[in-house]
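Homework help board

Subject: predicted structure for assignment chain

Our instructor gave us this sequence and asked us to write out the predicted structure in token form, then describe one feature. I got the tokens but I'm not sure how to describe them. Can anyone check?
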Amino acid sequence: DVQLVESGGGSVQAGGSLRLACKFATGYSAVTLCMGWFRQTPGKGREGVAAINRRGTTRYADFVSGRFTISKDKDKNILYLHMNNLKVEDTSMYYCAGAPLVHSPLEPYEYNYWGQGTQVTVS
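My token output:
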């Protein structure tokens, strides 16, 4: 079974930065999975933020507007999301997810494995 564990969330002022990390505890590696970051606020559906496939090709939601960067450390089996110039509207629970194959990288339904989330609060 694949276990994903997020870390790095916290509280930050608008304009600040955070780096989220997602560690693969067991199972597949960052090399063999397509990976993504998603977020969800209470009362709203889960939305895609960024994704990276096995070849390293990335995809971002329009609202990212160049502020976030998704990357993976293959040796350490860790997925990252570097977030700069954070806005109040970025406040949300952030989740990492993985799947062997996806066709629509920013669609939550494509992903099989999910972490428990890490809270990001921007004020």
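Reply (TA_rk): Your tokens look well-formed. For the description, you could write something like this. The longest strand covers residues 18-26. That's the kind of observation they're looking for.
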